[in-house]
Amino acid sequence: MASIKKREIPKSDGSTTIRWRARYRDRRGEMHEKLFAREREAKDWIATQTASVVTGKHVAPRDGSVTLSNYAEHWLTRYRPEAPSSVASARVHVHKIQGAPFASKGIVDVEPVDVEDWLADLADEGRAPSYIAAVHARLRSIYKYAIDRERIIHHNPAAAVKGRGGRRREYTLCSPEQMWAIHEHAETDSVKIGILLGAFAGLRVGEIVGLRPEDCFVLDPSSAYVYPRQQFGGAPLKTPGSAARVEIPSEFATTLRRHIESRPSDSLLVNQWGKPLQQVVFSKSFQRARDKAIAVEVEAGVPVGQRIPTNLRAHDLRHLCASMLFAAGRPVPEVAEHLRHASSAVTLAVYSHMIPGRGRAGADALSSSWRSA
Predict the structure, then answer these.
(1) Could you tell me the CATH number of the domain that includes residue 105?
(2) Which residues contact residue 136 at a Cβ distance below 8 angstroms, ignoring those fewer than 6 apart?
(3) GO terms for biological process (predicted)?
(4) Which of 23, 217, 323, 355 has its CA 20 to 30 A from that of 154?
(5) Spatial contact of 32 and 70, defined as CB atoms under 8 Å apart
(6) What is the CATH number of the domain that holds 271?
(7) Mean of the per-residue pLDDT values of the chain
(8) 54 and 73 co-located in one domain
(9) pLDDT tens digits for range 147-164
(10) Residue 293 domain-assigned?
């Protein structure tokens, strides 16, 4: 049952204002209502909500606003495994999920790309593939409970991300030339700058969209650096060690300075309305630029094996940064510092195969012990 009624709402000055109250009941019999300034807006809202009730895709307004972090805590109180040790394991996983960049989002607002980027971050940390698979499965279970048992949402972003069966996530690489081709096809200057921050500063996507002009020290290009302090919306960085100085090339510093001076804003990257650029929007903009660059390669007759990978993500720019540093002969500790890894061991766990000449150096070292027969 749904209804729309005209209401006169008293104001502080003694006058009244007209509002339209829209009300409906969901399948559980619960009443939901909302006030609108225009009757048309009330009718549109009622039509959308009642249609979702009929199709089984209804999400109560208050349920949709619950953050993933809070719902995960609620799920934990309802978790009833047979083995007590399973509760302890679930608590550890929930704590990790609550630290994810998207945990502060509404439970209905989390996108598959958020989950995919987060799992890639865990791999970058050097987390065991089995651990990554476990927290991924836990996130899937939390959403499944919300869908099947409590019926407060109707989509599972964690289920849309393909698991790796306990193996470390295989990231995708592009060449510097391919990165520049994608950069050329980016829709806005903000997206172009974001691509360069990933490729030359090695920032994670959440850090890219969270960077502010005050975090960029580019007055002197010869000693320029960026200092990420937050993710989008002021969310904390992945680890305390992620807040650190990251040196950038002088050429990039000049470009970054021009970008900051041309559009004064509290956020470094903004959308077409001047609002902070969201992580999912940046990732999708990158994918569109990637696809345009691939289309140019196809038209030019570039062989399939030499084209930009079709599954290349914005997060993979961080891996490109690592590969360029290793190709330039930079030592592991220096690469670890640039990427802000907790230790060189993490860097080796993720990128050891990138170190040029590593196998040859080992063989040459063994030659010193060779004795002629």
Answers:
(1) 1.10.150
(2) 115, 119, 158, 161, 163
(3) DNA integration; DNA recombination
(4) 23
(5) no
(6) 1.10.443.10
(7) 85
(8) no
(9) 888 777 888 999 988 765
(10) yes
Number of domains making up the chain: 3
pLDDT at 51: 66
Query: Which candidate, 10, 146, 154, places its Cα nearest to that of 72?
Result: 146
The answer to the question of residue 118 being in a domain is yes
Is 133 found in the same domain as 191? Answer: no
pLDDT of residue 196: 97
Determine how many CB atoms are found less than 10 A away from the CB of residue 371: 4
pLDDT band at 65 (very low <50, low <70, confident <90, very high): low
| CA atoms of 91 and 135, how far apart (whole Å) | 11
pLDDT band at 192, cuts 50/70/90?
Answer: very high
Q: Which residues lie closer than 8 Å to 67 by C-beta, 6 or more apart?
A: 103, 104, 105, 106, 107
CB 267 within 8 A of CB 249: no
Q: What is the pLDDT of residues 336-371, one digit of tens each?
A: 999 998 888 878 877 877 776 665 555 665 655 565
Beta carbons of 94 and 76 less than 8 angstroms apart:
yes
Give the separation between CA 19 and CA 5, rounded to whole angstroms. Answer: 9
Kindly state whether residues 226 and 270 are assigned to the same domain.
Answer: yes
State the residue range of the domain holding 115: 68-148
pTM: 0.60
Of 58, 86, 102, the last residue of a domain is 58
Phi/psi of residue 89, nearest 5 degrees: -65, -40
